[in-house]
Structure prediction request, 452 residues.
Amino acid sequence: MTKERKPKNVFVEGAIPPEKIATSIAHHQVKTNIGAHDIFLGQIRADEIDGKIVTAIEYSAYEDMASQAIHEIREAAFEKFDLTCMHIYHSLGRVKAGEICLFVFTSSAHRKECFEATRFIVEEIKSKAPIFGKEVFEDETHVWKENR
Amino acid sequence: MTKERKPKNVFVEGAIPPEKIATSIAHHQVKTNIGAHDIFLGQIRADEIDGKIVTAIEYSAYEDMASQAIHEIREAAFEKFDLTCMHIYHSLGRVKAGEICLFVFTSSAHRKECFEATRFIVEEIKSKAPIFGKEVFEDETHVWKENR
Amino acid sequence: MKLTINYFGMIAEAVGSSKADFELHGKTVSDLKNELENTFPDLLGMSYQIAVNQKLVSSETEIMEQDEIAVLPPFAGG
Amino acid sequence: MKLTINYFGMIAEAVGSSKADFELHGKTVSDLKNELENTFPDLLGMSYQIAVNQKLVSSETEIMEQDEIAVLPPFAGG
Prediction:
């Protein structure tokens, strides 16, 4: 019998605040079968592109497809790794340089599982979730970001 | 010319509070050359050993040697990986089941570096830092923990 | 057949809309791409993928009248 | 020679002290281990390492009068 999980809402309007991360960590302190957490945070870089500095990224997504893609990534991660918990949040809308746009949090009894799971999830999201990013400069011109 | 760094104090009395992690994340929002953070947290498991449940671990260390060992691990990580920031904290004294005893936080422009660095640092601390842990049961009897 | 197409990111910018009707004369994804590129020549220089009912599909896939069609530029999440 | 030895964790528990003077008759780490195990037979069944001046050393290392000596049980950090 496999546990059926519904797609969770992973999208957050604007930046992910550090307090959200603290709250999420605190919620896991009742789960005393956890020995290790690995947290990945994506942060907006103020890259220089052709002499102009990126001040923000404006994220949009094909939301239903992205939610489904991330749901499948979540299921695959639970299948591959022996995890206790998993949380994934991604920003939509404008996120300023220095702010956090991606929060992936996995927990397991032992460190190996969560290390590998977090990395797997981040790579999968980057390649499979239809999320789009407009790098906005100070003068409000922009270029489109592309994952490599 | 190599940057000389002095051993930092990595030891925290008791558990590492989630708010400390949030504060640490928030402090990095001014560093707009960072694109990726990876955070590892070690949490005390309520393991069952011979029918008794672990309620806390009491950590002690050969502090000077451990600080020096972690200093060398830090230097090695900065040498091996292109990192912007690195923070390492370990508890001393009693940390209850569910609480956090190790906090390793690395930041880099791109995700690959911080993923590999955090994992490297955690493995190195476990094998090279003279830190000792007494697993305490509800009846205050104990066994000594041993890293594998 | 008449389709409603969703456009995202730089593609939406290039076609000037994020959702619009489109009259498809052929029947495959390959036909759709050709017809889109005739209508919006800016697409010719751009990299994009077609999703049918929220799945990425190959050029040979046949399109049905009620399908949910989306034109997706390169992903940039994370 | 007279040494001051630091004991940690389960070793401190076994020898009943975390810091104590010890009269070493030999001169190497190997000699020290033998003399410690004679004094504290509980050590015989235990796994431990010797640090001299905060570095783990091999059995052949010679010990000097002012050296900082520590007896370390298995590490459990993290």
